[in-house]
Amino acid sequence: MTAETFEAYAAARTDARFTEWLRERSEPDWADATEHRFVRELGDGTLDDALFRRYLVQDYAFVGTLTSAFGYAVGQAPTMEAKGDCRNFWDTNRRGGQLLRALVRRVRRS
Predict the structure, then answer these.
(1) Mean pLDDT of the 63-75 span
(2) CB within 8 A of 53, min separation 6: which ones?
(3) Can you give the pTM of this predicted structure?
């Protein structure tokens, strides 16, 4: 069983990594997500184009909902510093969203 805290996890190891502790705590969900057939086929280039198109369209719809949630989070943030933290996180996500929109447009044309 994985330790409840990173401090407890690290105390039992000489090479403790926070990300490894998080991964171990997330099992079996981590393995389910990273070893799923979709992920394997995407990684090795054998994923069916129709399945990939469907995934892109669904992910694009999710990004739209996420945008609304972020707007609400910024509005509810208690301080300007907290609003800034939301904005910084959003900037990272926005760049990924721009790439996703470009992919969706390309897939819809094909």
Answers:
(1) 83
(2) 107
(3) 0.54
